[in-house]
Amino acid sequence: MMVAYERALETWRPDALFQDPFAIAMATDKGKMLSETVCERCGKVGLAGWPEFHQMWTAVRTKFIDQRVAELAATDSFTQFVNLGAGLDTRAYRLQCFLAFRGGCFEVDMEVVNNGKRRIFAEFLGAPTPYCRVRPVSLDFLDAGTELRSKLREATFDDSKPAVFLSEGLVMYLGAEGQAKFISDVTAAAARGSVLVLQFLGGSDVETDLGSFNMLSVDKAERLLTDAGWAQLEFSRFGDERLNFGRFPTQRFEPTPYFSFVVCVKT
């Protein structure tokens, strides 16, 4: 709800980085409250004096993902898209580039989330037509007994073909063991040539070793992904040239590793 509200805020700007006409219907007053509460805590990540930082981060990360997905779709090398922890994501409904994913968009999340999203789309948005077939996949990433690959196969996912895998706002809630299992599960489901776009809460090795279990240092992420067979790792931090779009006040703050992405290819 919070991220949906922040996508709505961006949509209303005259210089919006993207348009999400569905966001406000999913945000509710709770989304607004959560956003304002998070922004009040900006000082904890070294961004004191920039209270709207998380709203800008949501806009920038959404644009970053939209742009990368469009670039990948344009290659015509991928016919399937897997959205891991999809939540209230609307890309399959608002991005025309999803026409390229003829094999479907597989939205993976807990059953209660999938059902809630289905109800919102039906009751408040008039059941909009997606640009490709959308397949909800019910899975709890905190359940050690679940297997992503088999759940995707049940939804007609073809794991012999390369796909685009997106993980936005998820791995920071899985803990250290959960993060390792997550990467292992995605690797098992991904054919050679697949691309993973992964957002993570960056931190130093010291911070992660001291118990900040929601953090994933760049070094650890690189080790986990490389050991699992991923290559061409491209890291970006909020404020870097590619993860900025003119919204990060570089004259006041250094790029922050706490808000990071890695894009990589399965070998």
TrEMBL record:
<keyword id="KW-0489">Methyltransferase</keyword>
<dbReference type="InterPro" id="IPR007213">
    <property type="entry name" value="Ppm1/Ppm2/Tcmp"/>
</dbReference>
<protein>
    <submittedName>
        <fullName>Uncharacterized protein</fullName>
    </submittedName>
</protein>
<dbReference type="Pfam" id="PF04072">
    <property type="entry name" value="LCM"/>
</dbReference>
<keyword id="KW-0808">Transferase</keyword>
<dbReference type="GO" id="GO:0008168">
    <property type="term" value="F:methyltransferase activity"/>
</dbReference>
<dbReference type="InterPro" id="IPR011610">
    <property type="entry name" value="SAM_mthyl_Trfase_ML2640-like"/>
</dbReference>
<comment type="similarity">
    <text>Belongs to the UPF0677 family.</text>
</comment>
<dbReference type="GO" id="GO:0032259">
    <property type="term" value="P:methylation"/>
</dbReference>
<dbReference type="InterPro" id="IPR029063">
    <property type="entry name" value="SAM-dependent_MTases_sf"/>
</dbReference>
